[in-house]
Amino acid sequence: MKTPNGYEMIQLFEQFAPKHLAMEGDKIGLQIGTLNKPIRRIMITLDVLEHVVDEAIVHEIDLIIAHHPPIFRPLKHIVTDQPYGRMIEKCIKHNIAIYAAHTNLDIAKGGVNDWIAEALQLQNVDVLVPTYEEPLKKLVVYVPRTHADAVRKAMGDAGAGHIGNYSHCTFNSEGIGTFLPEEGANPFIGQQGKLETVEEVRIETIVPARLQRKVIRAMLQTHPYEEVAYDVYPLDNKGTTYGLGRIGTLSEEMTLQQFAEHVKTSLHVPAVRVVGELASRVRKVAVIGGDGNKYIHEAKMSGADVYVTGDLYYHVAHDALMLGLNVVDPGHHVEKVMKEGVANVLKTMCAQQKFDVDIYVSQTNTEPFTFI
Ligand SMILES: [Zn+2]
């Protein structure tokens, strides 16, 4: 077991919620403090308020991972006799770093919206609003026949050749490679100054752009040649689609009223606001954690019977009525599911890496509303 530094810890976390998934202009990443220090205790929170930082001080936290970035609008001042300034001052004085994973955590596979969809027991879950399609590359490498199996396996193990539910997909054609080792060469086959011909296999496979370097490294390590001939082509077809919100179905149809009760119990909220006819039947559910006002048309277009999202505005509720889209608003605070969600992901990742880190879930309630 080892104690990681902040960079190692965040690099690991960003394998789960990579920054490039965030919506443009989102304020994500390290916001306060430094990652250049050992990380022994991490606290996960939805919001960073002064009493959340007080909790972190008591628990000797080195790093807070928050969903809502505490610095979102440009800072005009840090006045330390006011709660906001004091919050920042306390973080700096107690050497607590704050890192925000916001829309990248919403969009991540298995992230906030998947946790909410899971809590609502939705099935056949898919992305509601696509925001990012993973670019793909074609990798072609020429390998002597004796080493083709090993190179194919190394590339597949590194993530190449993933198509749907299939891994290690390649196409192979045989041919003759030629080369003439020049002065200074140390050839695996043949000798300097003599034209060689070798039976080779042309292996082609597909690689997500983010794995390109890893796959090429694995290929080079297994390939016997001193100089390896390989080509990388850009592709127009795309890999995995990422996006905001999820759409899925309930195992059985229910009334909007029953569904509203289901949302209350599943997401542990004392009340919900409902738009639509309570007796209407619902089965297909669209969901966006937090504020999904902007996406009611996407929810309607997706064929959802009901849309679950928070912070619903009065006029957007009218728009939904006119669209004939039922809405259940359980509030923004349902995103609290991220606390346990991120903690579980980090515990698994730290165990795999043998990182000796305590993951602590904030117990502070940051729901600003009281329901009476
Ligand atoms: Zn939010």
UniProtKB/TrEMBL annotation:
Query: Could you tell me the keywords of this UniProt record?
Result: Metal-binding
User: Which residues are listed as membrane-spanning?
Assistant: none
Gene Ontology molecular function terms on file? metal ion binding
An example GO CC term for this entry is: cytoplasm
Q: Which protein, by its recorded name, is this?
A: GTP cyclohydrolase 1 type 2 homolog
PANTHER family xref list:
GTP CYCLOHYDROLASE 1 TYPE 2 HOMOLOG, NGG1 INTERACTING FACTOR 3
Against InterPro entries, the record matches this protein to: DUF34/NIF3 (IPR002678), DUF34/NIF3_bac (IPR017221), DUF34/NIF3_sf (IPR036069), N-reg_PII/ATP_PRibTrfase_C (IPR015867)
Q: Which family does it belong to?
A: Belongs to the GTP cyclohydrolase I type 2/NIF3 family.
**Is Metal-binding found in the keyword set?**
yes
Q: Which domain of life is it from?
A: Bacteria
One of the Pfam families matching this protein, by short name: DUF34_NIF3
> Matching Gene3D superfamilies, A to Z?
3.30.70.120, NIF3 (NGG1p interacting factor 3)-like (3.40.1390.30)
Q: Where does a divalent metal cation bind?
A: 67-68, 106, 332, 335
Keyword Metal-binding included in the entry's annotation: yes
